Structures are given as structure tokens and as C-alpha cells.
Fold these 2 entries.
Entry 1:
Amino acid sequence: MQDIINTAEEHLIHTYNRYPLVLEKGEGVYLYDNTGKKYLDFSAGIAVFALGYNDKRYNDALKAQVDKLIHTSNYYYSKPMAKAAENVTKASGLDKVFFCNSGTEALEGAVKVARKYATKRAGYNEEQPESEIIAMEHSFHGRSTGALAITGNPKYQKDFRPLMPGVKFAKFNDLESVKALVTKKTVAIVMEPVQGEGGIYPATKEFIEGVRALCDEKDMLLIFDEVQCGMGRSGAMYACQKYGVKPDVLTTAKALGCGVPVGAFVVGGKAKDVLEAGDHGSTYGGNPLVTAAINEVFEIFAKDRILDHVNEVAPYLEEQLDALAAKFDCIKERRGLGLMQGLEFSVPVGDIVKKAMDNGLILISAGTHIIRFVPPLVITKENVDEMIAILEKSIETSL
Ligand SMILES: Cc1ncc(COP(=O)(O)O)c(C=O)c1O
């Protein structure tokens, strides 16, 4: 194991503090390292692997597409691309989609839609009007310079200035703080319906409805970033559907492809026809291989009734996390939506996460004090019991 780690450390830019763990294969909700040790996975590759590992149907769909056609440029159509576009627009309830390669890129695209909407709103005058976007404190939208500019975390931004201008940050779940930032230039509001990296904070219904009404009133676009909370994790295909609020632009990635690099932004209503030929592009975006993966993900979601499963198992996870929180003074709060849950501790959680790994459980944190639970959506109640037992032991021995 150590030789692999040494080679990686010698040649990779050290942008991650990785755990000393070399993963080799996955089966269902379990991962195995290269010594054969088994781990229950409650992180799913950071909210990606919704279906569990090594699902034969998914693997076979990818293999079949590999043998047919992996890539062709966006100058042509392919059957998987057309089907995936239909799947994503139907699932989101929006009109048109652009496929890209990651969540970050999906946000970049959404920002471009917003910027161009300002031009459209001004009546396509010669000069592009200055425009502003309101994003949320503690949000996370990616690390490229545009996505980073709308990410409300000074820690990630501080060494990479100047970032894209024209961004202001409001307080999440505080409608008055959003209203106070709106000017004539404001063209869009971007937010995660459930903040993920920022610490698992679901939006309140009043907030999300208030922001929608504000966007309607001031002719601004509402952009929902559902890269993490989307694709069934909330118990609805997209979390905004749990709130009954529709955005103008929605970004999706992670579990959309369940492991192949893919992202998308979907537009509807007044955002539907903003981008035109020549406005945006991607060499790989929506190629036959990744869109075949997307289509199989949607097939399996329907066949296995994944949403029903999430709605059945998520309340049990909440119950068990609440019971755990009641046992330990160091756990301050549980919060979340569906199978996207967080436990906030009064102490840093790094040691607990490491202990859990030693004990055969993979967890991730969100910030220093929060353990984030974003398991494969196929976990069972027995898996929840197993996770709680390991976590309890890990907390006890870390304190
Ligand atoms: C809400 C949200 N938006 C955007 C991103 C960036 O996605 P990616 O890492 O696929 O570029 C993430 C990643 O964690 C995310 O959680």
C-alpha cells in the first residue's frame, strides 16, 4: 500500500490531504482497499455513487456503449445524447439542457446564462450591461475562477483574487439580507436548496419561496445548484421539488452520471432561449459514453423505485442520528434533508472520521465540526444500524 501512496505523493500536486487508504473495488454499499479490508461507505464518492458499486446493469450499459461509440463531437447527434436530454429536462421539469463535464462547469454555464440574460433584459443594446449576481454565504459551487467567485467561503477564495467581479453575498435563509443587496444590475440569485460543503443547511420553505418571488418581481433568474442535493438525494428527483419551487436554471452533476464525469445546466421559462449557437461549448460535453451512463442511471432509478426507497430509509437515518445525538453531549445538532444529513459537533471531527475509517466506515466531513452523511441511495436500514454502531464506537474512543 505504502509504495502506491509514495508514488502518488511524489507525482500529484498536493491539493488534497488524502487519507492513507488505497481503494481497489466496490460492491453495493461497500468499498475494499488493496489489502482486502472492507468499508461501509457513507460518502458515496462525495454524493456521487447513488446506485451502489458494481451494479451490473450500469456496468453493462457502459461496456455496450464503449463497444459502439465513446465519443463524437457536438457537431453531430447521438441516440444516448437525445435520450439523456429528454431524461434530464423531464426530471427537472425544465425545458432545455446543456451537458458539460462536472458540477463546476455546470455553474460556469449557469453564470453565463445569467450574464447573457442581462443583455437580453436590456434589449440587446450594443454595450453589454454590467450585471450582478447574488450568491449565499457558506455556499459551495466549485473551484474554477467563476464558480469560486460565487462560492461564499473566503478560505477558498483568498489566494486567487481577482475573481470574477459582480458578485455579492447574502445570508442563507435570510430573505431581508438578499433583498438588501438587490440593485437594478442584479440579474440572478444562485443558491443550493440544501447547502452541502457549507455544513448541510436545508433552505427554509419561506426563504426559497421568498427568493423565487423576488426573482419574479425584479426580473432576475433563480439558479438552483443541485449538484450535491439533486438526483434523488432529498427524496425528490431534485430537492427544489420537495419545496414546490421551480428555478429558471438548475445545475446537476455527481449522481447524474454515477461515476462518469458529467454535469449539466438545465434552463426553463425566461432562461430557456438565452443561449444561442456559438455562445457555449464543450468538446466532451454530452458524449455518447457519459449520456449512456445517465440514461442507465434514470432506468435504474425508475425500475428500482429509488425515490420511494430514499423516502423510506431517510426517516430511519434521521431517527438513528437523533438518538446518537441524544447520547453524546459533543453532538450539537442534526440537520438535513433525505439522505443528505449532517451532525454538528462541538469538537473538530477529524479524529472521529479517522477512527471510523480504522473501524471500517467511510465518512466525510463538511468543514471542521460537521460529519456529513451522503451514502449511496440504496442503503438499507441494516446499513444504517451498522453505520451507527461503528460511529458510536468511534466517537467514544476519540473523546
Ligand atoms: C453544490 C455543489 N456545486 C458544485 C460543486 C462542484 O462540482 P464538481 O466537483 O463536480 O466540479 C459541488 C461539489 O462538491 C457542490 O457540492
Entry 2:
Amino acid sequence: MDLIGPPNQEDCCNSGCNPCIFDVYEEKLRKIKLGQHNLKMLKNCISDTSYSTFRVITKLKHTENSFLIIFEYSGQSQSDDLNLYFEPGQHFLMKSSLKSTSESFTRAYTPLLSDNLGRLQFRILVKLYEGGMMSKIINKLNIGSETLWRGPYGDFKISYDFRDVLMIAQGTGIAPIYSVIIKMVNDENFEGFIKLFYCCNEIFLHDEIYELKKYWNFDYEVFLGGSKKGFCKYNEIVHENRLGETQIGEFLKNKSENVQVLICGGENFSGCIKNYLKSVQDKNIFVF
Ligand SMILES: Cc1cc2nc3c(=O)[nH]c(=O)nc-3n(C[C@H](O)[C@H](O)[C@H](O)COP(=O)(O)OP(=O)(O)OC[C@H]3O[C@@H](n4cnc5c(N)ncnc54)[C@H](O)[C@@H]3O)c2cc1C
């Protein structure tokens, strides 16, 4: 597999993917010329400029409308030094079809940082939407089904410079946030405190988030926004109402300027939350 060769013409589906495979290639060439390209990426079994084949290894029902799916690389190059590399918070793009058709399209999914996976495997949480084009395809995937992926994409970089990190996630927006939390609480360089406000109708990754409570520097509250689909575990704070300016203000009160806020949710949600963050400097806010 040539990971730095130009993309195949037929890999561009002309459906306005973000990012476009050709733009990524141009940027990569520019970085290689400037000596800025991360060499680890060259041994990655997933590439941002060509599609790699991954087979479904497990597909578990997670909630009523969501699955946890593990994919494993099944491409041609199987050398020992190949790995699967992504930064917490980055996402991959899945292509709708194995064939190059003009109707193909891509959708973004966020690999979850998981320590019990094989070297060339990744796991995603997928919520299925009624009438959703990729949802229909994912719904039909079986063990052994082959799929095409490219990535990783996304330029979020973890910073350990903040005393407090407030993370605000909506729905499946918990996926990148969860990976970032795992990475941070396990890093001895991090001496700050993480607070998660999780806004959802159903609590995705409920057991996993609850498990994180064992870390001294992580705490969370869930906001169900009127829905009663969640149930409370021992010592867990679950609000039935929506997250509002008051709760965010309460959290930020008496905090120094040394606070970072990470937001991941739909466009409206993120815009609305940003409006509640007047006291936080723009450079300390990251929207996934
Ligand atoms: C960077 C990034 C990372 C993502 N990571 C994940 C992930 O880890 N897991 C995951 O499940 N999804 C993730 N998504 C969303 C995913 O890419 C798709 O948008 C989603 O799976 C729906 O695709 P679809 O083709 O089934 O629906 P579409 O055909 O695109 O949409 C059909 C209809 O479904 C409904 N719909 C679609 N998306 C949403 C939404 N987000 N909220 C509410 N209604 C919606 C709308 O009614 C829409 O009209 C991510 C998106 C981005 C941009």
C-alpha cells in the first residue's frame, strides 16, 4: 500500500466530502516538503489520502438505536510494523460503497480509544437515524462485512496547561470527548480537573463514563433534557432538565482564567453553548 501516493481519481466521489481526499493529499505533500509531516502516519494502516478496507469483527447493540462496532484492517499490506494510529478526538470517514460509483458518499465516525483491541482494530459508537443514508448501510453490516475508510482527520491537540477543563458533549458527541478524557486522566503530566456535562436523550457509553469516576480528577453530570430514558447509577448526578447558562456559570464561578472548554455536539447546540461562555477567552474554547 503506497500511503503517500496520489489518491485514485475514482476515490473522489464528488459529493463534497469534508475534507476532500485531494485537498488532504495536497496538504500532506506541502507538509512533507516543509519537514512537518508526522512519520508515524506513514506506517498507519488507515490513510488520509486513500481508502483502506476494514472488516466488521463485532457488532453489538448498545442502546435502542445505536451499535458499538469493531472493525479490523483487512487490506493487502499486512507487514508487522503496520499499526492503526489516531489522536484522541480525531475522526475517520466511511465510504458508502466498495465500488467507485458517482452516487457514493462519506460520513464521519469517531474511533473510541479502547485498550482491549487488536493492533489493527478500531471501535466506533454509531447512532442510527431513521431515513439516514449511512444509517441504512450500517444497519445492514454483518460480521465479516467489508467497508472502506480513510483518515484520521481533525486538528484537536490535548493541552495539559489548564487547571480546569470543562467538556460539554451532546449525544454521540460523547465519542471524541470520551477518548480525550481517557487519554488525559491516564497521563501523569495532567494535574488539572475535568468536569463533563453530558446532554443526551439516552446515555451513550454509560458504563464507560461511570468507570471513569474512579479517577480523582474526573467528574460528570448528565442532562436528559426532559427525556426519562436514562437511569441513575450509584452516586451519579442525572438532571431531567436541559443544561443551561446557570449550571455553566456556577461551574465557571471562582475559576481562574486557567480554564479550557471543549464542546462536541450539533451546530445549534455548540453555538448555543458558546454563547454561555462569555467569561472564557475564545482561544481557550475548542469546538469539535
Ligand atoms: C466529525 C464528526 C464525527 C462524527 N462522529 C460520529 C460518531 O462517532 N458516531 C455517530 O453515530 N455519528 C457521528 N457523526 C455523525 C455521522 O457522520 C452522520 O452524520 C450520522 O451517522 C448520520 O448519517 P446518515 O447518512 O445516516 O444520515 P443522513 O442521511 O445524513 O441524514 C438523514 C436524516 O437523519 C437525521 N440526522 C442525521 N444526522 C443527525 C444528527 N447528528 N442529529 C440529529 N439528526 C440527524 C436528520 O433528520 C437527517 O435529515 C459524526 C459527524 C461528524 C461531523
